[in-house]
Specification:
The two termini are 36 Å apart. The strands form 5 sheets. Strands 1, 2, 5, 8, 9 and 10 form a 6-stranded antiparallel β-sheet that branches. Strands 6-3-7-12 form a 4-stranded antiparallel β-sheet, with no helix packed on it. The chain folds into 2 domains: 149 residues, no CATH class; 98 residues, Rossmann fold. It is 27% helix and 26% strand. Helix 8 packs across helix 9. The chain is built from 9 helices and 18 strands. With 290 residues, it is an alpha+beta fold.
């Protein structure tokens, strides 16, 4: 960033223009926060591929769910600034606020003098020497986190893994709640998966089902493979997302690709998802967050 700032000469450039120029030359996934002595009382955050969210502690103007987020001076009634939080994980902000704005690729969060703007930039901007058009402001609704602080604490357990092991019966019950449907007076139940019911015919005609994931998500899918293969009668194969991308493995239009990710934000899994979509496969996601 100092390199691009030093190239400005006599031209007056804004902090967002300097950051934009840096963004244009970055490759891969990132979530970054920029601070500079040359631009006091300013802070800029941006992302590509990696998760980033902005937590807002109580908008005085509107405290209801889904309240609109736009350029504001975040001052409370007593004149003190509102609290803003930047994080890659909702767990880090839930104890402070449940109101968050999920930052999307190509968006820049600009904090300046107690105000905050969400700006959207195009990727084809010119060099610093060229005239840069001002980015457009973004107006979107705040999301409300549905998790509680107790969910991220260890409680009386010594380790998080121990906590998760003992929570498995409850987690399984919660997962199936509303998805087991009793048919009339019969004691038998059928399973309703709302996200899949419109695609069942396509899945049944699939050439194969491909589980794609990373780490423990991959291992969880590996454990489920024999059950799914036995019940469906469809061949089930496994792919590690990064390996699939590296070798550009075959994915066909007749495949159903099932992506497993606890967070829903694993970079390699998301890249593999785009790869499968480009190849015309039906894509299904299994994640712990919505």
């Amino acid at each position: 960033m100092p390199f691009y700032f030093s190239r400005r000469g006599d031209q007056v450039v804004t902090f967002s223009q300097v950051v934009l120029e840096v963004m244009r030359h970055l490759e891969g996934a990132y979530a970054l926060i920029f601070k500079s002595l040359h631009y006091p009382n300013e802070l800029i955050a941006c992302k590509r591929g990696s998760p980033l969210l902005l937590g807002v502690k109580e908008l005085a103007e509107n405290k209801e769910n889904g309240s609109a987020f736009e350029e504001n001076k975040f001052l409370s009634k007593d004149g003190k600034p509102k609290e803003l939080f930047l994080s890659s994980d909702a767990n880090a902000v839930v104890e402070h606020t449940k109101k968050v704005l999920v930052i999307e690729d190509g968006e820049v969060v600009h904090l300046k003098d107690g105000g905050v703007s969400i700006l959207k930039y195009e990727n084809d901007m010119g060099e610093l020497g060229a005239s840069l058009s001002r980015a457009s402001s973004v107006r979107r609704a705040l999301s409300v986190l549905e998790m509680e602080v107790e969910q991220i604490n260890k409680g009386h357990y010594e380790h998080y893994m121990q906590k998760e092991i003992h929570e498995q019966p409850e987690s399984l019950t919660t997962t199936m709640r509303g998805r087991l449907i009793r048919r009339g007076s019969s004691k038998s139940k059928s399973v309703l998966l709302g996200g899949l019911k419109d695609h069942l015919k396509t899945i049944r005609r699939s050439r194969r089902i491909v589980f794609i994931g990373c780490g423990t998500s991959y291992n969880a899918a590996l454990a489920a493979r024999p059950i799914l293969e036995e019940l469906s009668g469809i061949p089930v194969t496994m792919e590690i997302a990064s390996d699939l991308l590296d070798r550009e493995g075959p994915i066909y239009r007749e495949d159903t690709a099932v992506f497993v990710s606890q967070s829903g934000e694993t970079a390699d899994t998301l890249l593999a998802l785009q790869y499968a979509l480009d190849n015309g496969a039906l894509c299904v996601g299994i994640t712990n967050t919505v």
